[in-house]
Design a protein that fits this description.
The chain is mainly alpha-helical and about 60 residues long. The protein is built from 2 helices and no strands.
């Protein structure tokens, strides 16, 4: 990967932080949900956020 600017680095950091926050938020919502469908929805959303974060990190290598 070539050199990146400070602005690009800050944007990358922001994207990763957002994905991580979504992942944890959805996990917490899933843990608190009592309705099985709602629980499953948030579990899938958490898995999707995790996958997005991992995919993004792969592009950075």
């Amino acid at each position: 990967m070539g050199n990146i600017s400070e602005m690009e680095l800050q944007n990358i950091r922001h994207l990763l932080t957002s994905a991580q926050t979504e992942e944890k938020k959805y996990q917490a919502y899933a843990e608190q949900a009592t309705d099985p469908q709602v629980k499953q929805f948030f579990q899938k959303a958490s898995q999707s956020a995790t996958q997005n974060k991992q995919t993004f990190l792969q592009y950075l290598q």
